[in-house]
Amino acid sequence: MYLRFFGLRELPFELTPDPKFLYLTPRHREALSTLHYGVSAGKSLTVLLGEAGTGKTTLLRTVLESSEHGHVRWVSINNPILTREDFVRTLALRFELREAAARSKSTFLDELERELRDRRSRQEISVLVVDEAQSLSNELLEEIRLLANIETAADKLLLLVLAGQPEFAAKLNDPRLRQLKQRVALRCEIAPFDVAETGAYIASRIATAGGESARLFTREAVIAIHECAHGIPRTINVICDNALLGAFAIGRSLVDRGIVMDVVADFDLKAEPVAVVPVAETAEVPPNRPAPVVEAAGAERETPSRGLFEQVSNPRRFAFFGIARR
Q1: What's the CATH number of domain 2-9+193-315, 3.40.50.2300, 1.10.10.10, 1.10.8.60, 3.40.50.980?
Q2: What is the rounded distance in angstroms from the CA atom of residue 200 to the CA atom of residue 198?
Q3: Which residue has the higher pLDDT, 294 or 241?
Q4: Which of 23, 106, 110, 147 is the most buried (most CB within 10 A)?
Q5: Which residues 6+ apart lie within 8 Å of 227 measured at CB?
Q6: For the chain, how many helices (H) and strands (E)?
């Protein structure tokens, strides 16, 4: 396994989302708190916005699978490109209703309300999560709005969480959806990482894997990763994973900008230069390690990247999801 070449331990393919193991920017932390509050306070409709790959699904799972929401039963729809009939059938299946409910909308609504009332009598909270909400048709958005009307005199019986890309915000401004927009009780948005957050994110994942970021990536490599991933965590993972694999293949223990750009070319990614605040280059090359690679004859050596990661006070508490086994 190539991870051992870099002094990293092997990790399982997936780790259970848990706030204490996540790297959270201030925007991610705010969104996580908003989602927790929405479920705890029984808010009827919560909207989560964010670019593809910024961690919306991870935040949702973190909230709904957390120990403090053990009384929450949730249903998720991840592919909302459905007809009205398919939508009813899917919900009937996910809520474990009788087969007849999947064939008749009126039967579905009767059984769903009965099931939700039974759950509430057992002090359980029911949540419907729809991911990729920007792909929902106006017809299905209206169906979802009507589901929010299932309630008692005091409580909403079905809480709704709609997660989508930024264009979903524009969709909600459609006058035909004004009744749905009026029901939005909470709204939060997460954004791509800036360059400092990208460095801290890479450092946190490497630290959790038992490594040290400054021994694996030069500062220039981290800046290149940010420029080409545009701060999107999912893309950062892909670039870092393949950059380490590429470094392993050519026998280098330090990833420089050249290796990163080779990966970027392979994946046909485009860089977007960003302004970077100068960082004091106080770190030295670790003992018994190869010196950073010079990209071209006469070029200056790239410097270890420790400066970008100094803001990580306790990096081992963050999760390392990225470098998969080969």
Answers
A1: 1.10.8.60
A2: 5
A3: 241
A4: 23
A5: 271, 272, 273, 274
A6: 12, 5
